[in-house]
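Example 330, ligand nicotinamide-adenine-dinucleotide.
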Amino acid sequence: MKSVLLTGGAGYIGSNVANFLLDKGLKVTIIDNLITGKKILVPKKAKLFICDIANQKKVTKIIKINNFDAVMHFAGLVKVDESIKYPKKYNDFNYKKGKIFLNTCFKNNLKNIIFSSTASVYGNARHKKVYENNKLKPLNPYAKSKYKLENYLIKNSKSNNFKYIILRYFNVAGAEKKLRTGLISKSSSNLIKVICEVAVGKRKKLKINGNDYNTKDGTPVRDFIHVSDLAEIHYLTAKYLTENNKSKIFNCGYGKGYSVLEVVNNMNSIIKKKIPIIIGKRRNKDIEISISSTKKFHKYIEWKPKFNNLKYILKTSFDWEKKLKYIKKI
Ligand SMILES: NC(=O)c1ccc[n+]([C@@H]2O[C@H](COP(=O)([O-])OP(=O)(O)OC[C@H]3O[C@@H](n4cnc5c(N)ncnc54)[C@H](O)[C@@H]3O)[C@@H](O)[C@H]2O)c1
């Protein structure tokens, strides 16, 4: 594997993966329309095309003048609350444009596709851990749009003679050690992002959406995966795909859950202050517990997580948030 095409490489996860692949000596080409992404997150060594994934003419040209071994499709909109307000927008961006982009890939003979999906396609799991063969029940328009594109990939892989890896991320957080890139998002509802914004004084308090869930302390439980581990997962699964030519669906998480209150308490001990919190009502259709099974991933991919530590995740997120305060042009 020498050369990879990334859509959404100016975003949080895509830019982390871009840096990781470049560090491994790969050639990285990015397509991003900067709708939420930021040019400053794009590594200098990557080639950036500011372009919509649904622009068939331009995307075809980019594919034709390069020789990509794999495509990593990150581009999309990611805010669950926004998707509930604007369901059509999410269907258009994540599903319809995604479909157009995939068709352009098929037509131009790109054979290895890695797709960024989400654990929210499972909805509320009945068992403690979520397995890849669980029944899928996406509860919000964001999750539905990802679910639809997953199905499109699966259904079209045989007739178009390509292979895919679908990665269902659990809660992605943290920043890489070198702080070259991280999460920039206005009015984010990402728990760790919000906590860090409170910690650096950008927000006054954290609102916890419900403390009456059937969990150890009443607050929802999530499986947080560090973005640098996720970046390595992309590298390893792309290698697996190009070497083995087999389609797979994998969960991406550590298999351990932390409640919202546990996350807050860990942050309190890092900053040696108390994050002010208020308890609000449950959000509509919020998931109670979301923890990944990691069994299937470990069966096929040789990998050991390097950053499986909540305090490290929080510390790097906090360091990134502090750095952001001093970046003027975002
Ligand atoms: N962040 C998470 O915790 C999480 C969890 C599960 C899944 N995911 C998935 O991972 C992917 C990346 O998420 P992220 O957190 O980095 O989001 P992000 O918003 O930081 O990045 C998305 C990028 O896609 C670009 N983009 C969007 N629509 C585009 C289009 N039509 N054409 C070209 N570029 C376009 C944006 O400008 C942005 O740079 C998404 O597909 C998301 O659904 C993220």
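Summary: The chain has a mean pLDDT of 95.
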